[in-house]
UniProtKB/TrEMBL annotation, chains A, B, C, D:
Key words of the record: Amino-acid biosynthesis, Lyase, Metal-binding, Methionine biosynthesis, Zinc
Pathway: Amino-acid biosynthesis; L-methionine biosynthesis via salvage pathway; L-methionine from S-methyl-5-thio-alpha-D-ribose 1-phosphate: step 2/6
Taxonomy, superkingdom: Bacteria
GO molecular function, one term: methylthioribulose 1-phosphate dehydratase activity
Required co-factors: Zn(2+)
Cofactor note text: Binds 1 zinc ion per subunit.
Protein name (database record): Methylthioribulose-1-phosphate dehydratase
A Pfam family it matches: Aldolase_II
NCBIfam families referenced in this protein's UniProt entry, alphabetically: PRK09220.1 (NF006672), salvage_mtnB (TIGR03328)
Family to which this protein belongs: Belongs to the aldolase class II family. MtnB subfamily.
Domain Class II aldolase/adducin N-terminal: 17-205
């Protein structure tokens, strides 16, 4: 049949359900204000399932999940993909091991992005929770979370991310005034990274208010 | 029948249900302390449905919603409308496109109103979330959220709001020591504006505590 | 029948249910940490229903509510009343119009009590929410919330409260390092006062962190 | 029967249920970010039930609870016990009266541990809530909560804890950049201690931001 969709619809259905449940939990934490943020899962080696732009993330339904190819074009629907889709698909295209990308806008992430935009990164060191990042097995590890300048020019932003990825292992980055991207092997892995960044950024802001850091 | 109500009771019933569900969610966030705050929806081109003054916003029932005309007078009931009803109806009268007005008292809104009352506005710039305001399509937009002096003289307050509305597009304003008014085409639009203001004011306060802004 | 209890058991049952529902909500807000806090309702002109000391306020059951007379002695049970029972019953004895006393330990209340213990009061002014206090009808009212030194000597503390009550209308007081007492005509009235104090103290602390107040 | 487990499986089942319910509540408070934290209950005089390392603490199931002996070795399963198991079992071995050990990673605990690591302890004084610690019956008591340097060398950490325990009564300790250990006779007792530490550390941090303490 010529009209057959080029991806596994059963798998899409599973992933959509998983996205809905997890994004509702993130929304209840206040990390997706005012219909912001977007979330995706790798569907196969050419497609990803991603939230449709502008939907209330606390009330996602299956119709709010669309399929895109790795150039960020809608597949099997006429939904307009979010401008930021490219920041998701560049990760899926480059790393076959990445299965989930989460982009949130918590207040802590936004404030930290503004505060450290000048430095270009947030230096995280001395926290046991650094062990939460896949591959880190000791709390002695330190980590610089990059902060990129905000722009509506997605190909330019994606190129900057690619340059950072060339340098070595990364689990996420901030965009100035905008929020956080975090990713992982699957939803659980990506959420662990997301939660760890949120927690560590929150600690850094508090320590700074207290006159340390 | 001479006693027929001059509005569509079926539509009122729908809007009351929508107000109840949404206000309970806002109340659970702590934005309506001590029975404060009020909420309305346009019913038609002469009437609005609005919460009765002094009710616990976390436990609203249908009997806590009344109808007013655009002069702020009760229609079809003998409930006493809130003194602030006029601040809702002036928006419905002036802009046929406004369908929902939300007035909340979160701590962030109250603190920001006190802090920026002298300046007369809160300047918001450099946030991706500025795109949440209808008509804004780039994060480069900046926005001044007005802060009006508090008073119990509602006609005077309404006149100040009218003067601000003459100057151009507005999505909300603060009243000193009091809280925020935000509005939109419908409930979803107004809530997106309300959430965006709450988020951005929270970021501004945090940045100020951290020695920026 | 000589063994008849000297109060209306049906009324006790109603009040116990009301206390349980309301205290669980306050506990969910984190205002009753580590089994602290206590809560009471007037039963009649000689008795009050009050929470038994040391129970987890998030998991109250009917067996966690006891009856005391206005000298703070257990009636109809051998539960040991909390040492602070006297601070509840002194209000019921003195003011027939008081029907509910709420004592909580939120972090904001505890921090404010430490911060303003030297001054002996927290001055609250310029907030619309001051209208939440029964009898206040304008936001122009100002209010001094007293802060008493902490002590385990309850008769001495009660005497200080009595001296304050002699001076005029009061809706609550703080005890240094300890928490807040608030009261009202009934549960709804007392909760409105409690929520208003919590909100206003929170605003004062935030404004102080921001360099104002 | 040679294969019989050396502990009471019915008791294990009860304790596992209790751990699951309580840890989900702690997780909902945000005290177990990114699969961190671990929790245990004494099973008998040679065994403890403890959470398996790396599980999402907000979604614990019975399969996420394992049995260890007091040397921290798995019993009756091939789960790998957390490296920190030894910090639990050293308490059970030394004090027959300890029935529950809770280790959490709240932001307040982590920030306080960083802030007071240099001093080696957090001094807590002037709080009514100090009465929450078993054996304390007056708010006049003061308490120094130890802060230990973080390390992955558990026997060394355990030896430092033992040295502190030699000095007198203790209800918990912090590890720098890591979190809090608190314990008690049973789950309710340990949770009361945990909540009291969280509350008091939160007050200390707030007072410090406000220019006191």
């Amino acid at each position: 049949m010529t009209d057959a969709l080029p991806y596994d619809t059963h798998r899409l259905c599973e992933l959509a359900g998983e996205i809905i449940v997890n994004v509702r939990e993130l929304s209840a934490l206040g990390w997706t204000p005012a219909t912001s943020s977007n979330f995706s899962r790798r569907l196969d080696d050419r497609h990803a399932a991603i939230t449709v732009s502008g939907r209330d993330k606390g009330k996602l339904r299956e119709a709010d999940i669309m399929v895109v190819d790795f150039d960020g074009r809608a597949v099997g629907s006429d939904h307009r993909p979010s401008a930021e889709t490219l920041l998701h698909t560049q990760l899926y295209r480059r790393f076959p091991g990445i299965g989930c990308v989460l982009h949130t806008h918590s207040q802590v992430q936004t404030v930290a992005s503004r505060l450290y935009a000048g430095a270009g990164h947030v230096h995280l060191e001395g926290y046991e929770l650094l062990k939460a990042f896949s591959g880190n097995t000791t709390h002695e590890t330190e980590l610089d979370l990059p902060v990129l300048p905000n722009t509506q020019d997605m190909p330019s932003l994606a190129a900057q991310v690619d340059a950072l990825l060339d340098r070595g292992d990364m689990w996420g980055y901030l965009i100035d005034g905008h929020g956080l991207y975090a990713w992982g092997r699957d939803m659980a892995d990506a959420r662990r990274h997301l939660e760890a960044f949120e927690f560590l950024l929150g600690c850094e802001l508090e320590l700074r208010k207290l006159g340390c850091a």
